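Structure, all two chains, one model.
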Amino acid sequence: MSQPSANPTYKLTYFNVKALAEPIRVLFAYGGIDYEDVRFQREEWPAIKPTMPMGQAPVLDVDGIRVHQSVSIARYIAKKVGLSGANDWESLLIDVAVDTVNDLRQKISIAQYEPDEAVKAKKFEVLKSETLPFYLEKLESIAKENNGYLALGKLTWADLYFVGLLDYLNFMIGFDLTTDRPNLKKVVDNVTAIESIKAWIAKRPETEC
Amino acid sequence: MSQPSANPTYKLTYFNVKALAEPIRVLFAYGGIDYEDVRFQREEWPAIKPTMPMGQAPVLDVDGIRVHQSVSIARYIAKKVGLSGANDWESLLIDVAVDTVNDLRQKISIAQYEPDEAVKAKKFEVLKSETLPFYLEKLESIAKENNGYLALGKLTWADLYFVGLLDYLNFMIGFDLTTDRPNLKKVVDNVTAIESIKAWIAKRPETEC
């Protein structure tokens, strides 16, 4: 079983959008870790897709060893940059927060990527009238309990995961999820106030989502 | 931030089915860890749902501290029973395997829980003609490369996760996913041959899924 070196090279490959890769890019920025940020165009995807494990992106090459699954990759990089739990219990509570954000993403995605237009409209109706209010109220109260963070009352990779993903979520639903949610907004502010992340946001390519 | 004790009490609460709780139960069985296996009936769910974090089950009480998110819980228990990675890289590869199995579950669930019958039928058609063959071929080849396991060429919680979930997946799609997939079948055999797991399977309540 080949293993990467102690100081490996990283290459992240994804579409030229934030979406699923952005939490990983934000984690790299936070840790000041160098990596190659490879971005392909949408029209290149059909040729690239068959070369990807499970036909999915993003993928990360670590010393040339390719792995997929964006959340698993983010958890791995979080450990490298000191944003994972100090013990198993802390790691559990961070994972719970990440999975909850990810459940929200999946519920939005199920509506967004529905191929039948009539069914899609109906799914968005349920999403906007039931699912989003429920999730946003819960996440707002989690952020309040944790003093502007999503777990443990302190900065963890759950916060970077949420903020990294937020533009994509907002793009899919057509409004800013943190509107009138001051504690969720505080999570965003806490993350984007970090100098290394602020610098990344200032220099990253402008993309639609 | 309250933390559980070094030797905590565990209470797992779920429907009286295998489904999302069974990987956790299988992990407890493997580690010989005592826990209270609380099972409620479907008709009790409307009353229980509002008491659950995020309105979801299963939940695990650890020394009375309640957590949700079945995959996060399984990862936590896996660490307690020695089935997580020996280092960050191994943990990453296990997480990738778990997330891949979970992607498959979600793709099946999107079809299974589609409320519109005509749309559901169409989703099952795509699932059976495209998604399942693709995933099963990939998983079969992963199991082959890993000598009858899903990661690292050895037993990890990814295998227990897959085998714990399999009856539920099979129930939803109406056939055994390991049919004509000898290496996936080997994953099942490797897990179910473990004495503690064999004993759990022999004594667990008989349920439809």
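Strands of chain A lie at 10-15, 36-40, 59-62, 65-68.
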